[in-house]
Amino acid sequence: MLVKTDQDTLQSYLSDASNMPGGSADRILIPETQEELREALLQCASEGKAITIAGGGTGLTGARVPLGGTVISTERLNKIISIDEATLRAVVEPGVSLRDFQTAVEERGLLYPPDPTERAAAMGGTVACNSSGARTFKYGATRAFIERLRIFLPDGEELQVRRGETFASGSTLTLRAVSGKTYTLALPQITMPAMKHAAGYFVKSGMDAIDLFIGSEGTLGAIAEIEVRLLRQPERIVAGVIFFDSVDGVMNFVQEAREASLKTRANASADGGTSEIGIDSRALEYFDRFALDFVRDEYPNIPQEAAAAVWFEQEVNDETEGTLLELWYELIGKYTPFMDEAWFAITEKDQEELREFRHAVPAKTYERIRELNQRKIGTDMAVPDAHFRTLYDFYTTEFTKEGLQYIIFGHIGNSHVHANIFTSNAEELDRAKAAYHRCVLKALELGGTISAEHGVGKIKRDYLRDMYGAAAIEQFAVLKRVLDPAGLLGRGTMFA
Ligand SMILES: Cc1cc2nc3c(=O)[nH]c(=O)nc-3n(C[C@H](O)[C@H](O)[C@H](O)COP(=O)(O)OP(=O)(O)OC[C@H]3O[C@@H](n4cnc5c(N)ncnc54)[C@H](O)[C@@H]3O)c2cc1C
């Protein structure tokens, strides 16, 4: 195990992509084997030191920002243990980067759908945050692909949690460690919203034990090994970036594309895929006018008059490609006058360029936030589809009224976009925070969630309370104390 205490090394573990200030730690432990991860936890526990588990540091909520104590970095736990093409399963250590894993899987003609845009994320971090991304529109979040987790608790006990093996009895969940020690958890009495959602612990009567740890943001245990489910790669993809001249145009286009996709999927599951060929987008991603302006220098072929854009991807094969392209052209033509300016990508190289364009918008946004030296103020709320436009208009009205500079992009297929506000001084930051809070309350009033994919971390703690109330947060804390009695793991994340 490597131990680092020099200031230069410590610095790079005190932040994440949220730009949250105030991180501090007295040492970094870097286990080189899973067994050393257990030893690192035991060492911290015996010294009573707070523990922050570090993955790739791409999180957007300050969850990885340590508030004192020790950082345990998973960077050397970076083995892809197996990829089994026959059973469509892979086993990885938590420090494997999403980029390395996606590359290894794709080389074998396989698909791991979770793809939260920033491939520098570590696999353990994506599980701890239940990350999503563009393909979540078709395939769901990381949770849907996690089959088994090996977890170490601060007392050094090992849990092996396999999907389908351990279920809560009503609202009591009993976990049995490999040693035989048991932990009995009372599940908080909350109702999670029925949409894409990543705020607080996943708890539900009769739930599968594995789901508690997915999205627990490093507060319940250290993930030491992950088994995931894979799919076969589709034969081919067609993709496009379509520009629109009005927000109404883009909203109507998205609504029709979403409804068509859901209908195609419902038909396919009813008849095993023998039904008529239909639109089934695997990604529907939005960029507002300001997002387009933001990357215009790098992409000068964005039409000057464009009010917004949508990037879509559709899986095709030899048999379906012609019909599906016709269906997409017909749908696009109904809602945009910029048909000739659309970017279509048929080859893998062109599609990669569109993905780079998608990545460039958030990457440049977070870079600008760092340059401005301000904390990230970016929405991650989602609401039921029927209320998305109401929330969207609420965002733009609030930010305009406050004279705030912002850009909006993200996963419009899931009625979930990120509005990021740029502030350049403390007074603007205060106004941005107040406007943001009004947006949180509006999303909750519309039946939504405070976080659809980034999690709560340290910067969204108060909003979790807005969502569930103080009594439910106390129930979350009681649950955590069973597994982490001294409250060492992820101090400051989710709980004050
Ligand atoms: C440009 C950009 C675009 C992004 N786009 C998306 C997007 O589209 N969708 C999306 O969902 N996210 C997105 N993100 C957020 C980010 O990529 C994810 O939150 C990421 O999954 C976190 O992984 P990480 O390894 O970087 O975790 P870190 O930031 O290192 O840690 C995050 C949390 O996970 C915990 N953790 C890490 N490893 C472990 C472990 N082994 N055991 C227990 N806990 C652990 C940490 O303690 C911390 O609480 C984006 C980020 C950037 C910078």
What is this entry, summarized?
The protein has 496 residues and is of the alpha+beta class. It is built from 14 helices and 20 strands.
Structure description:
- The chain is of the alpha+beta class and 496 residues long.
- The protein has three domains: 2-73, Uridine Diphospho-n-acetylenolpyruvylglucosamine Reductase, domain 2; 80-232, 2-Layer Sandwich (Uridine Diphospho-n-acetylenolpyruvylglucosamine Reductase, domain 3); 236-445, FAD-linked oxidases, C-terminal domain (Vanillyl-alcohol Oxidase, Chain A, domain 3, 3-Layer(aba) Sandwich).
- Helix content is 34%, strand content 21%.
- It contains 14 helices and 20 strands.
- The strands form five sheets. A seven-stranded antiparallel beta sheet has the order 17-14-16-15-19-20-18, sandwiched between helices.
- A hairpin with a 4-residue loop joins strand 19 (405-411) and strand 20 (416-422).
- Helix 7 packs antiparallel against helix 9 (321-335), helix 11 (388-401) packs antiparallel against helix 12 and helix 13 (461-468) packs across helix 14 (470-483).
- It is globular.
- The mean pLDDT is 95.
- Flavin-adenine dinucleotide (FAD) binds next to strand 3, helix 4, strand 12 and helix 10.
